[in-house]
Amino acid sequence: MKYLVSLCCAFLMLVACSKQPDNNIEANKAAMKRFETMINTADSNIAKELVANDAPFYTPASPTPLYGGEGYLSVVHWMRQSFPDVQWKLEDMVAEGNVVAVRWTLSGTHEGEFMGMPATGKHFSTSVMNFYYFNDEGKIINDIAAEGMIGILRGIGMLDK
User: Fold this and answer.
1) Is 100:29 a contact under the CB 8 Å cutoff?
2) By CB atoms within 10 Å of each CB, which of 5, 30, 31, 116 scores lowest?
3) Which residue has the higher pLDDT, 146 or 80?
4) Helix orientation angle between 22-41 and 68-82, rounded to the nearest 10 degrees
5) What letters, b where the CB count within 10 A reaches 16 and e where it falls short, cover 46-71?
């Protein structure tokens, strides 16, 4: 019995020590609110503050990964070429450890060519989901996106609904 109690205590200590403190979770969530400002204003100063320089981002905008805050903002600029009024609205977020999951509403008006399709003038609004990974310094080091492109393609008429 003594061995079992010791084992349980050791396990609980391991779990407690492996979790990121709540203040880091709250800091990461606050960073995501600033991130929303960054992507909607294309603010390179906020990008440098929030995104690690060596963080890779994969996107249809580039055949190779883009890195750091400037790389991330190049995706925003790419989207603005086709959707000048594109906006991301943070709807929900959940954080655990060094990961923050965010549900965004992405909306805009198709006013420029997008992936070979001429401008339609159609407005779209779709829900997208991303998982953001933070390092110990509180900077984003990875962004895994759930596929939201289908919502854009449907919204501008490239695909049937």
Assistant:
1) yes
2) 116
3) 80
4) 40
5) bbbebbbeebebebeeeeeebbbbeb
At position 129, the amino acid (one-letter code) is: M
pLDDT of residue 4: 38
Q: Dihedrals φ, ψ of 107, to 5°? A: -145, 155
Burial class from Cβ neighbours inside 10 Å (0-12, 13-18, 19+) for residue 104 reads: buried
Instruction: Name the residue with tokens 């790389």.
Output: 71
Q: What is the 3-state secondary structure (H, E, C) of the chain?
A: CHHHHHHHHHHHHHHHHHCCCHHHHHHHHHHHHHHHHHHHHCCHHHHHHHECCCCEEEECCEEEEEEHHHHHHHHHHHHHHHCCCCEEEEEEEEEECCEEEEEEEEEEECCCCECCECCCCCEEEEEEEEEEEECCCCCEEEEEECCCHHHHHHHCCCCCC
pLDDT of residue 2: 43
Domains and CATH numbers, the chain: 20-155 (3.10.450.50)
Q: Is the confidence at residue 102, as pLDDT, over 50?
A: yes
Distance of CA 86 to the CA centre of its chain: 15
